[in-house]
Structures are given as structure tokens and as C-alpha cells.
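Hi! If you just cloned this repository, the fastest way to understand the data is to look at a raw example. We've pasted two of them here, unedited. The first protein comes first, obviously.
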Amino acid sequence: MYANSAGFHIDPTPRRADGEYIAHARISCSSADGLEYDVHLSGDLRGFDAREDAVRFAAEWATEWLATHCGARQRLPGDPRE
């Protein structure tokens, strides 16, 4: 799992299906009381032969998603810190 300076966590762990690694990303954050909540789940992004390629692709995808949607660490709908 990766974390960025804004407190988001990225889990790019791929799943294995039909002989390939399917890239997907789970982006989460923790509230002040330590409870973790999902910010975004990517769904299946793309299949890869190598696990490392799937992890790298999902992590880069999630980083871009965060830059686009949460660039200045805006509060998101459902954020317990609202």
C-alpha cells in the first residue's frame, strides 16, 4: 500500500484471473479517529502478464485520479471529517 502527503492510501494489489493479473486500485483515507473509509474503487483497469506491471499501472492510475479529483485535498462527499 502506498500513501501520499495528503493522507490518501493507494492499494494497487492486482487480482489474478484467467492467467493474467488484473490491475485495479483502492483509494482510501483515514478519519481523525483512525477509521479507514473508501474514497474511490477503480474497478478493473487492464490485464497484464506480470504482477509488477499491474501494480505499477494501478498505482499510476490512482495517483492521476487523485491529482484530478483531489488536487488540493478537498473534502469529499461522505468524508467523516466534514
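Ok, and the second one:
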Amino acid sequence: MRKLIQSLHDWLPVWAADWLDILVPAVEVALIAFAAWLLMRLAHKLIGRVTQKYGLPVNVVSVFLRVVGVLVYVGALLWALERLGVSGAVLWTAFTGFATVGAVAFFAAWSVLSNLFCTLLIYITKAFRIGDVVELLEAGDKAGMKGRVVDINPVYTTLLESGDAQNGTTLQLPNSLFFQRAVRRWHGNAVVELSVDQQGGP
């Protein structure tokens, strides 16, 4: 492709060759921008299908799409700068600086990111849903934390421990905790008995 453009550049008159030097990079940048836009459209459709299949919450999907968008558009920007003639050394410096900042931010937000990933796993694996009664089992003979799931957000799962939403107690547990311990789901009569115990509790 480069040889074809160079031969065309040599064949054209000087005034047209100057315009070619401007037009070719502009077209390349436009194609890169279109490719990034198309890739994000495909990502939206793919994530939309996954959301419909597994019932992912909107806030989790929004965060995931923002992360994908940053990666796609930053990559497209660096590629476009390279096509516009920015030196490889400058691009490499910018990339390594961006990667360093990203790595520091990644490790600083590791707990939040791990909870976000575990939220996706909870929905994909159907570990439990809102309305289920679950218990996190402790080691040994200790009683576990249990309650009815009333909310699952990107960081926490909220369990109704006793009473109701107006007069009761709730537990907010990090989503990653459900993949570090055994989880017991209560079914049928066991759920009814648990509800009676909660209403009769303090």
C-alpha cells in the first residue's frame, strides 16, 4: 500500500502531490475513527445480548462499557497519531506512561474491580438472585451470615437479616466474599422457617 501511494505521489504534479500528503493521512484517521466506532457498536450489541440472557444490572453494564470504551478510543487515538506522523518514540513514551498510570490505578482499585467482576459472575453463574435466602458459611461451628437478598449492586450484595425494609437489619457484603466462602441457599420450608425466626427476632 505504501509503495502504491509513493508511486502515485511521484506521478502526480507537485501541487496535487502536496494535497495527497494531506488527504491520505486524513482518510486513514477517518478510517481508524470509523473502526473504533464500529467496534464499540459491536461491543454494545454483544453486551446487550449477554445482559438479556443473564439479566445483568444496568449499572454493571454501564461500568463495563466505559472501561471498554476507554481502551478502544485510547488505542485508536495512539494509532491515529502514528498515522499523522508522530514519532514512535513519542508514542512509546505516551503508551508506557499511560500503562504505568493504568497499572497503578488498577492495583489501587483492585478490591472494587474484583467485586465488579464477581458481580458479573454472580449473574452469569446464577449463584443467587434478588429474593433468594442465602447464608455465608463460617469455618467450624460458627453461625454464618444469612438473610434474604434485597439488592445486588456492582460492589455489595445487601441481605435483609431481620424485620423488613422499614424496621429491620441489613447486611452489606462485598460480592467477592461469596466466592471466598461456601454459600448455602435456603429453599421451600426452610425459607418459611427463616422468615418466622426473623419476625420473632429482636
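That's it. A detail worth noticing about the second one: The beta strands are 133-136, 145-152, 156-163, 168-174, 183-186.
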